[in-house]
């Protein structure tokens, strides 16, 4: 339902994404792993046009476009149909939790304020923060701020939510509540493309794990296969570094 073909991106002379092909089925949870600097964030950012790709095609349901020459209106359409969760939450400091969740509905979807706020209240219930509707980000914990960041993505009712290391800047004490919310979304079969170093999350939640290195997809498969019998030496090398030394991630 989402098809990425030959996505490429350079920064100056550096080829950061080199012909990425990836299909994502509706309801599929894909976790992207790989060394730092390998292009994972750039991949997500290109899919949301936070960066302009140099080449490739994106098919999102009935919408199919050339990424390098996409018109302004198709870029807006892609942004409406994809939602982004940032590592650093990127909430509006001068808006409440409720307003942060409602903002996109008002500005992007042009909903009337009352309708947007009513929907935002439903989202606050789902993320377990109904009592924080009027709280400003500065008064929320990191975990709560990121849950609002995820709530904002949920409110958009996007076809896919793109998560770029959503727990990486959290104090350890807040990681679990954010992962729990992501698991809740996964159970609801929200289509998700998640860049993370949380290998236990990948093992438990991902339908497919994609290993990237040097701007390319090296190998992909279900976590039960990729984590236990990676085929490519680069995948093996990476997993040796990031998987716990004991066999905590092995099945059985
Ligand atoms: P990852 O998320 O896997 O750590 P990134 O996608 O952030 O990797 O970065 C991939 C490469 O692109 C890195 O070498 C990074 O320095 C470079 N890069 C990322 N964003 C920019 C930018 N806006 N301008 C120039 N280089 C960038
Ligand atoms: Mg990154």
Q: Which bin fits the share of residues in helices? A: 25-40%
Sheet with most strands: 6 strands, mixed
Q: Structural class of the helices, strands and pairings?
A: alpha/beta
Name every ligand kind in the structure: adenosine-5'-diphosphate, magnesium ion
| C-alpha-based Rg, rounded | 18 Å
Q: Give the tally of structural domains.
A: 1
Poorly predicted spans: none
Shape: globular
- Portion in beta strands: 15-25%
CATH C-level label: Alpha Beta
Strand order of the largest sheet: 6-7-8-3-9-10
Separate helix tally: 9
Number of strands: 10
| CATH fold call | Rossmann fold
Give the SSE string: EEEHEEHEHHHEHEHEEHH
The CATH architecture would be 3-Layer(aba) Sandwich
Mean pLDDT: 95
Termini Cα gap: 33 Å
How would you describe what is shown here?
This protein is of the alpha/beta class and 252 residues long. The radius of gyration is 18 Å and the shape is globular. Helix 3 (97-107) runs parallel beside helix 5 (142-155), helix 4 (113-126) packs across helix 5 and helix 5 packs parallel to helix 6. It has a single domain (2-242), classed as Rossmann fold (3-Layer(aba) Sandwich). 43% of the residues are buried. It has helices spanning 40-47, 72-81, 97-107, 113-126, 142-155, 172-187, 199-205, 223-226, 233-242, and strands at residues 2-11, 14-24, 29-33, 55-60, 63-66, 82-85, 160-164, 192-195, 208-213, 216-221. The strands form two sheets. The chain has a six-stranded mixed sheet, with helices on both faces. It has a four-stranded antiparallel sheet with strand order 2-1-4-5, covered by helices on one side. It binds adenosine-5'-diphosphate and magnesium ion. Residues 11, 16, 34, 36-42 line the site of adenosine-5'-diphosphate. Magnesium ion (MG) binds next to helix 1.
């Amino acid at each position: 339902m989402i098809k990425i073909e030959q996505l490429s991106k350079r920064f100056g002379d550096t080829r950061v994404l080199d012909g990425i092909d990836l299909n994502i089925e509706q309801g599929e949870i894909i976790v992207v792993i790989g060394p730092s600097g390998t292009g994972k964030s750039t991949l997500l950012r290109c899919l949301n046009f936070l960066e302009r790709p140099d080449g490739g095609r994106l098919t999102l349901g009935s919408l199919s476009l050339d990424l390098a020459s996409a018109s302004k209106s198709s870029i807006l359409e892609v942004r409406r149909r994809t939602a982004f969760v940032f590592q650093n939450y990127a909430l509006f400091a001068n808006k409440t939790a409720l307003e942060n969740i409602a903002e996109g509905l008002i500005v992007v979807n042009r909903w009337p304020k009352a309708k947007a706020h009513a929907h935002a209240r439903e989202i606050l219930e789902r993320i377990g923060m109904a009592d924080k509707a009027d709280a400003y980000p500065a008064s929320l914990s990191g975990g709560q701020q990121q849950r609002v960041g995820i709530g904002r993505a949920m409110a958009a009712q996007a076809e896919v939510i793109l998560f770029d290391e959503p727990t990486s800047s959290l104090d350890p004490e807040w990681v679990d509540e954010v992962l729990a919310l992501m698991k809740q979304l996964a159970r609801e079969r929200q289509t998700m493309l998640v860049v993370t170093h949380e290998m236990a999350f990948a093992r438990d939640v991902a339908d497919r794990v994609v290993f990237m290195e040097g701007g390319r997809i090296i190998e992909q498969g279900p976590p039960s296969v990729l984590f236990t019998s990676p085929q490519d030496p680069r995948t093996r090398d990476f997993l040796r570094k990031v998987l716990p030394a004991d066999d905590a991630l092995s099945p059985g």
